[in-house]
Design brief:
This protein has one domain. Helix content is 62%, strand content 0%. The protein is built from six helices and no strands. Helix 3 crosses helix 4.
Length: 120
Amino acid sequence: MLKRASKGTNTMMEEMMDKMAIKTKSVSKDIHLGNILCDLCAESDDSVKYLFFDCKKSKIVWEMCDRWIGVNMVHHNKPCVNFQHFHLMQLNGKQNKSWKGMWLAIIWEIWKHKNMVIFR
């Protein structure tokens, strides 16, 4: 039986992602930065969904992690759904908690890399 993340976890995840400083949010707040393209690939407008799950540079990271652990996963581009699907049936509860910790580490590393590109 699959266990779903609690509603509280989903809400916390949505709030965390919503707090991230993304260029497209600046435009909606009438702050014009000029270029609103993704800082990693410059191919699409910068957004949380795009940065972490649709950007070709981020996809490389997800694919490398999948290969490292030996799985072939389809990654949803909505953060909360992606997190919920980050569950491996062959792992026990404790192992899956560690696996979900890896999800957070991947998100954190992509975010740090984006900031390094911006502020180097």
